[in-house]
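Saturday, quiet lab. Running sequence design on the structure tokens for the scaffold JK sent over.
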């Protein structure tokens, strides 16, 4: 029997606010353990949480960007459970009245567009972190993360393959980073994903029993965990068994999922409205105001790049991967007026050098102006395409002006026919054997002569002129 996977994802994104969600402590990652804490986020008795307005603003941004309905009346609920990283004994979250509901994102899978529904987006606080050390019998608790703001984005069970799942995740990630409300760092846990997956016979309408997968800290691991789980559930069903509803942990080193807890052990969180926080009312004006601050989102930008610059959709996809890269590209086009050539340079050389030097685009030693200059200098014949690569490398290393590099290194292209003629004559004179063979019909050797001339002129000869003069000389 053929089975179809059904996937729904729950994403937790850490918001990039300066302070925590209900107190003034820093929300920064990587401080010394327990440095960013106060009586509120430590859960001392008698303290009162106060809502961080930025958290609401950022969540509204995400809600607008993903076409959600925004609830004007919000409230917070306590999710009760006991764990040493949760000092209050409950997590403040949203339950019955989340900030946003009923949105979507469009994902492109192998050229086909697919719309993935978003069930809800709500705000909540993060818990602390337990630190276990193999060589030490004690465990430690670091509460710096306790109270750091999160949004949870819950999708509809709309995805039908691990590829669609990853496509959706990448879109969400891209939007969060474009909005500058999350740094998207999966390894540090600022972007985390739990994956729900079930199988059903192809053609069947009803969903099967799902499992929930946790502990994947990269896109690749989400994909691997889903692929593994499809095989596992298929095996269970084909051998006459039943999938049981449970939470499973992804084990990266073994490439498998292990059962963590079943439905029977599932928590009853006993949600109830938090009496310490007043209901949160969101006005229409505020939503409008936030809407105005939204940047151009990746999909829009991509479509505009194709339309405005006439570059292939593939190029547009690469160039809009981040706002900084897209800005770099647009500036380069402005300076050079050559959209496709600029795209080739950025996708090839700039991204290549950045990767090699482990640098971000905003730290590129070659500025868009400098790259624009290099392109212009090829276009007006000052340097050849080959020399341009040398110039680029030098500008990358030194940050010097391309014109200056060309001048200092004497890299200006030789377009003087007389000078080229002399160089060509010398090459022909010093290769009598090849010349003889050429005259006897071995025309392939033409390329050899061109190569020798380029070598003799250290690559500075204008290739087009060399070809012309050489052809003339050889037919004499
Ligand atoms: P919970 O509160 O247990 O996490 P939810 O109803 O909030 O449960 O659903 C969590 C996620 O599971 C959602 O993303 C939803 O799309 C997905 N989901 C629900 N049912 C299924 C199913 N049968 N197969 C796959 N995913 C599912
Ligand atoms: Mg869940
Ligand atoms: Zn605090």
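Result came back. Writing it out in full:
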């Amino acid at each position: 029997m053929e089975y179809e996977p059904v996937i729904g994802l729950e994403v937790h994104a850490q918001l990039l606010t300066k302070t925590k969600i209900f107190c003034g402590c820093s929300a920064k990652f990587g401080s010394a353990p327990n440095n960013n804490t106060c009586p509120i986020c430590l859960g001392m008795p008698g303290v009162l949480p106060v809502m961080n307005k930025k958290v609401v603003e950022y969540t509204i941004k995400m809600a607008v960007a993903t076409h959600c309905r925004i609830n004007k009346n919000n409230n917070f609920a306590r999710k009760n459970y006991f764990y040493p990283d949760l000092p209050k004994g409950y997590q403040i979250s949203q339950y019955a009245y989340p900030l946003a509901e009923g949105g979507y994102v469009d994902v492109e899978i192998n050229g086909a567009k697919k719309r993935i529904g978003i069930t809800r987006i709500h705000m909540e606080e993060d818990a602390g972190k337990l630190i276990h050390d193999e060589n030490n019998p004690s465990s430690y608790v670091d509460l710096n993360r306790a109270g750091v703001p999160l949004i949870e984005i819950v999708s509809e069970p709309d995805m039908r393959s691990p590829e669609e799942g990853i496509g959706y995740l990448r879109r969400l990630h891209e939007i969060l980073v474009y909005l500058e409300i999350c740094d998207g760092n999966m390894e540090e846990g600022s972007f985390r994903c739990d994956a729900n997956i079930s199988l059903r016979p192809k053609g069947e309408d009803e969903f099967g029993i799902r499992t929930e997968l946790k502990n994947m800290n990269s896109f690749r691991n989400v994909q691997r965990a889903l692929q593994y789980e499809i095989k596992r559930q298929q095996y269970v069903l084909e051998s006459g068994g039943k999938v049981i509803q449970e939470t499973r942990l992804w084990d990266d080193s073994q490439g498998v999922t292990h059962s963590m807890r079943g439905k029977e052990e599932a928590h009853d969180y006993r949600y109830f409205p938090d009496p310490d926080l007043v209901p949160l009312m969101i006005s229409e004006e505020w939503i409008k105001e936030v809407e105005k601050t939204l940047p151009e989102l990746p999909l829009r930008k991509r479509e505009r790049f194709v339309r405005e610059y006439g570059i292939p959709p593939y190029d547009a996809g690469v160039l809009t991967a981040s706002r900084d890269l897209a800005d770099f590209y647009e500036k380069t086009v402005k300076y050079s007026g050559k959209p496709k050539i600029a795209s080739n340079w950025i996708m090839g050389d700039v991204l290549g050098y950045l990767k090699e030097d482990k640098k971000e685009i905003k730290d590129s030693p070659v500025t868009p102006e400098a790259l624009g200059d290099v392109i212009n200098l090829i276009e007006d014949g000052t340097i050849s395409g080959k020399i341009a690569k040398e110039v680029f490398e030098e500008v990358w290393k030194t940050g010097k002006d391309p014109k200056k590099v060309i001048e200092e290194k004497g890299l200006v292209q030789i377009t003087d026919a007389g000078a080229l003629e002399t160089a060509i004559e010398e090459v022909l004179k010093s290769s009598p054997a090849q010349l003889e063979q050429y005259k006897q019909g071995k025309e392939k050797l033409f390329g050899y002569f061109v190569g020798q001339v380029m070598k003799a002129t250290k690559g500075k000869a204008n290739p087009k002129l060399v070809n012309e003069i050489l052809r003339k000389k050889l037919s004499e």
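Notes for JK: The chain has a mean pLDDT of 94. The longest strand covers residues 112-125. Ask whether to fix the surface positions before the next round.
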